[in-house]
Write a structure and sequence with these properties.
The complex is a heterodimer of chains A (425) and B (310). Chain A is built from 13 helices and 18 strands. In chain A, strands 1, 2, 3, 4, 5, 16, 17 and 18 form an 8-stranded mixed sheet that branches. In chain A, strands 6-7-8-9-10-13-14-15 form an 8-stranded parallel sheet. In chain A, a hairpin with a 4-residue loop joins β1 and β2. Chain A is globular and about 65 Å long. Chain B folds into 2 domains: 133 residues, 3-Layer(aba) Sandwich (Rossmann fold), CATH 3.40.50; 151 residues, Aspartate/ornithine carbamoyltransferase (Rossmann fold, 3-Layer(aba) Sandwich). In chain B, β5, α6 and β6 form a beta-alpha-beta unit. The chains are: A alpha/beta (425), B alpha/beta (310). Chains A and B meet through α6 of A and α4 of B.
Chain lengths: 425, 310
C-alpha cells in the first residue's frame, strides 16, 4: 500500500536537501520525492511544520538477546527504537551466550523478522566466546547476516589477536568496532578518576584506561591500513588522538553517546546508579571537547549504547550495580536539546551523525538518506515540541534512564520502517 | 549557637563549621555521664536504635551501642554474617524490613561507598553513617576532633598530618573535611600509590617524606595499613613500608612540639606504629575510644530532635 508524506521539511544530508517536499512510498521504497505530489486515494501523513528525515541508525545497541530477556527483548527494544526515531539498530554481541556463531545470528534475525518492526542488525564477536583469544569465524558470521564485529564490553586485550582480527575482517568486509578500555587500569573502578572519585571514595577509572587503547587502535589501523571504529568515545584526550589520526589520513571513525555530551561526573555525586556507565561520565572539559568534536566532524556518529538493566539490578550499592543506561528513546531529543538548540550542530548535521554516517560505516547503501529508490526508513519529528521524560511512558523493558524528569525538546511523531508505520506519537 | 536541623549524619563533607562545633559542644556535655556511678540518662527512652553492621567492627559498634544505652534507647544489633544478607537479601530489602519494625535510628557500617546515602533515600528513620567503603566515617572524625580539641584546647591553626593509606581511608576523608572546616592545616603523607588523585583540591598538602609530615606537626593521625594492598602493588613490601612510614621512637626524634599520636584502630603493632609509640607518652589512642561514646551520644541526641535539657 502506498503512503504519501505531505508538506514536511525534508532534510537529507547525503543529497544536501533541506526544503519542503512530498515523499511517496510504495513497496517498502521511496518512489518519488517532489515539491508536490498529487495522487488520489493514497493514505497520507500531514507533515507540515515537521522534519522528515532518514530513519535513525544506532551503531551501538544492547537488546540483550539471547540470555537477558528480563532486561530487554527484541520486541520491547524495537518499540523503544521506534519511539526514538530509530529504524535500524545494531545489536552488540555481549550476550549470553555471546553472538559468535551462525545459529545465534540466525536465531536473532529470524525472531526480528517475525516481530517485523525496525531493522535489527547483528554485530558478531571478534573472538570466540568473547575471550580475546581466538578470532571468530568471520566468514560464517557475515554469511549469517552480521555487518560488524566487536567484543564490546571487553577490549581485545592481546594486540596480536587484535591485529589478526583486523586483517582477517578485511576478507568478508566487516566493520571492526573497538571497545577502548585497558581493563587492568580500570580494574574494579566505577567512576572517572579525579576529585569526585576521591570525595566519593569509589574505585576510580583513570582516563588512560580509554586513551591507551584509542592510541593502540590508531596505530593498528595505520600499520595495517585498515579501518577501525571506536565506540563510545568520552574523553577530550581521546578526541585529540583521533583528530591527529584523521589529519594523518588514518582510517579511524568513532561515535559518542548522548550522556557524554549531556552529563558529567558531577551527577554521580548522589551515588545515583543511573549515572553509572562505562566509560564513566567525565568532566565538564571532556563534555565540551565532545561537543566541539561533533561540530568539527572529528566524531562521526552519535550512538545510544542503549544498555537496559532491571530495577533490582540498579537498586544496589553503586559499586555493585551494573554499568549502563537506556538511550533509544531520548537520543534524538537530547541531540536537539543539547546540540541543535545550543547552536553546536544544525539539524542536518545531527541527522548526518545519527543516520547517514552510521549507515555508511555499516555499509547500508539504501539507508541513511532519502532518495528515490532507497529504503522507506523515515522519521517525522517535531523539533520544537517539548516533552517530559516519564518513567511510566518508557517503552523499553528497563527504565534505567538518568533523564527521567528532564524536559527535552523534539518529539517523534511517526517512525516508518520499510514503508510501514512502526511508531505513531 | 547553631541549630540542628539534619535528620541524618552521612558525612562531614556537607556539614558547616557551626554544625561540627555544635556536635562537639553537645558531646562535651555528655562526657561526664560515662563516669557517673549510674551511667544512664532517660533522654532517648522509648527510641530504638538498630546497628546494621556489614563489616566487622569492635570499637565503633560497641561505642554506638553503649552511647545509645546510656541515653536509655533500646538497641538491636545485626551483622551481615548472622542476618539474611548471607541468604542474598539486598541492602534495600534489609533496610525496608528493619524500617517496617518502627525504629528510630539506623547506624550502618558497610563496605560500599555511598551505602549510608542510599539508605537515607529509601527509609524513614535517621541514618547514621558508621563508615561506608572509602567514603566517610564521620563519627570517627568527630571523636578525633573532640580529642584534639580536648588535649590542645583548640583546632584552628594546628598542623595535623594524616599518615598512611589515604586512598582507601574513609577516616582520612572525614578528618580532612572536619579539620579544614575548623581551620587546621592538614597534610597527608604516604606512598604516592596510596594518595588518591586530586586530593590537594580538598585543600591539603601532600608529602611523601615522613620527616616533613612530622617535623612541625601538632597531631599525627596514623592510619591502619591493610596488608593485602601489597598484592595490588600499592607498596613494595611491608619491610619498606615500615622503614619509610612506620612511626617509631627514632622518627619521633624529629618532632618539635608536644605531638598527639592518634590511630582509629585496630592498630597493626610494629607496622604503622611501633609498640612503644602506640603505648607511649604522646599516644591518645585510648582517649579517642573513651571520647567516642560521648560524641555518639551527642549525635544521637541531636538527630533525635529531643529538646529537653541534658
Amino acid at each position: 500500500m502506498a503512503l504519501l508524506i505531505k508538506g514536511g521539511r525534508l532534510i537529507c544530508p547525503k543529497n544536501k536537501i533541506d526544503g519542503i517536499f512530498d515523499i511517496l512510498i510504495e513497496k517498502q521504497k521511496i518512489i518519488s520525492i517532489q515539491k508536490e505530489i498529487k495522487t488520489e486515494g493514497v493514505r497520507s501523513i500531514d507533515a507540515r511544520g515537521k522534519i522528515v528525515s532518514p530513519g535513525l541508525v544506532d551503531i551501538h545497541t544492547h537488546l540483550r538477546i539471547p540470555g537477558r530477556e528480563d532486561e530487554e527483548t527484541l520486541y520491547t527494544g524495537s518499540l523503544a527504537a521506534g519511539k526514538g526515531g530509530f529504524t535500524t539498530v545494531l545489536c552488540m554481541p555481549n550476550t549470553s551466550p555471546p553472538i559468535d556463531n551462525r545459529m545465534t545470528v540466525s536465531g536473532i534475525l529470524d525472531e526480528a523478522r517475525k516481530i517485523d518492526l525496525v531493522n535489527i542488525l547483528v554485530c558478531g564477536t571478534i573472538t570466540k566466546r568473547r575471550e580475546g583469544k581466538e578470532i571468530s569465524d568471520f566468514g560464517e558470521l557475515k554469511e549469517a547476516g552480521c555487518v560488524a564485529v566487536s567484543d564490546d564490553g571487553e577490549p581485545v586485550k592481546d594486540s596480536s589477536v587484535m591485529r589478526r582480527a583486523i586483517e582477517y575482517a578485511k576478507m568478508p568486509s566487516l566493520l571492526v568496532i573497538s571497545h577502548c578500555e585497558d581493563k587492568d587500569l580500570s580494574s574494579y573502578g566505577c567512576i572517572h578518576e579525579d576529585k569526585i572519585s576521591t570525595i566519593l571514595g569509589l574505585r576510580p577509572i583513570p582516563e588512560i584506561a580509554e586513551t591507551i587503547f584509542v592510541a593502540r587502535e590508531i596505530e593498528l589501523s595505520r600499520y595495517l591500513n585498515s579501518h577501525i571504529h571506536l565506540s563510545h568515545i568520552s574523553l577530550a584526550r581521546s578526541i585529540e588522538l583521533i583528530r591527529r589520526a584523521k589529519e594523518e589520513k588514518i582510517s579511524i571513525s568513532c561515535d559518542t553517546c548522548p550522556h557524554y555530551f549531556t552529563l558529567t561526573n558531577e551527577s554521580t555525586k548522589t551515588y545515583d546508579t543511573n549515572t553509572k556507565v562505562n566509560p564513566p561520565l567525565r568532566t565538564e572539559k571532556d563534555k565540551e571537547a565532545i561537543k566541539r568534536a561533533l561540530k568539527e566532524g572529528i566524531i562521526d556518529c552519535i550512538s545510544t549504547d542503549h544498555a537496559p538493566h532491571t530495577q533490582a539490578e540498579k537498586e544496589l550499592e553503586f559499586e555493585k550495580a551494573p554499568f549502563g543506561v537506556i538511550g533509544l528513546e531520548t537520543a534524538l531529543s537530547l541531540g536537539i536539546t543539547e546540540l541543535v538548540e545550543k547552536g553546536i550542530l544544525g539539524l542536518s548535521q545531527l541527522i548526518e551523525k545519527m543516520s547517514l554516517n552510521p549507515a555508511r560505516l555499516l555499509g547500508l547503501k539504501n539507508k541513511g538518506s532519502l532518495s528515490e529508490g532507497s529504503d522507506a526508513d523515515i522519521v517525522i519529528f517535531d523539533p520544537n515540541k517539548e516533552w517530559i521524560v516519564k518513567k511510566e511512558e518508557i517503552l523499553s523493558k528497563s527504565k534505567n534512564s538518568p533523564f527521567i524528569g528532564w524536559k527535552l525538546r523534539g518529539v517523534v511523531e511517526h517512525t516508518i520502517c520499510r514503508g510501514k508505520i512502526v511508531y505513531k506519537g | 549557637m547553631a541549630v540542628w536541623r539534619r535528620k541524618h549524619l552521612l558525612g562531614l563533607e556537607d556539614l558547616t563549621k557551626e554544625e561540627i562545633e555544635l556536635i562537639l559542644n553537645t558531646a562535651e556535655s555528655f562526657k561526664e555521664i560515662s563516669v557517673r556511678e549510674v551511667k544512664k540518662v532517660p533522654t532517648l527512652r522509648g527510641k530504638t536504635v538498630v546497628l546494621l553492621f556489614f563489616e566487622s567492627s569492635t570499637r565503633t559498634r560497641t561505642s554506638f551501642e553503649l552511647a545509645a544505652k546510656r541515653l536509655s534507647a533500646d538497641t538491636v544489633s545485626l551483622s551481615s554474617t548472622t542476618s539474611s544478607v548471607t541468604k542474598g537479601e539486598s541492602l534495600l530489602d534489609t533496610a525496608k524490613n528493619i524500617e517496617a519494625m518502627n525504629i528510630d535510628f539506623i547506624v550502618i557500617r558497610h563496605q560500599a561507598s555511598g551505602a549510608a546515602y542510599l539508605l537515607s533515600k529509601i527509609v524513614s528513620p535517621s541514618v547514621i553513617n558508621a563508615g561506608d567503603g572509602f567514603h566517610e566515617h564521620p563519627t570517627q572524625a568527630l571523636l578525633d576532633l573532640f580529642t584534639i580539641r580536648e588535649k590542645k584546647k583548640k583546632i584552628e591553626g594546628l598542623n595535623v598530618s594524616i599518615i598512611g593509606d589515604i586512598s582507601h581511608s574513609r577516616v582520612a576523608r572525614s578528618n580532612i573535611y572536619g579539620l579544614k572546616k575548623l581551620g587546621a592545616n592538614v597534610c597527608v603523607c604516604g606512598p604516592p600509590t596510596l594518595i588518591p588523585k586530586d586530593i590537594e583540591k580538598l585543600g591539603v598538602k601532600i608529602t611523601y617524606d615522613i620527616r616533613e609530615a612530622i617535623i612541625e606537626a601538632d597531631v599525627l593521625n596514623v592510619l591502619r595499613l591493610q596488608l593485602e594492598r601489597q598484592k595490588e602493588n600499592l607498596f613494595s613490601s611491608l619491610k619498606e613500608y615500615i622503614r619509610l612510614f612506620g612511626i617509631d621512637k627514632e622518627k619521633l626524634k624529629e618532632v618539635k612540639k608536644e605531638v598527639l599520636i592518634m590511630h582509629p584502630g585496630p592498630v597493626n603493632r610494629g607496622i604503622e606504629l611501633s609498640t612503644d609509640v602506640a603505648d607511649g607518652q604522646y599516644s591518645v589512642i585510648l582517649d579517642q575510644v573513651t571520647n567516642g561514646i560521648a560524641v555518639r551520644m551527642g549525635i544521637l541526641y541531636l538527630l533525635s530532635g529531643v529538646k529537653e535539657e541534658i
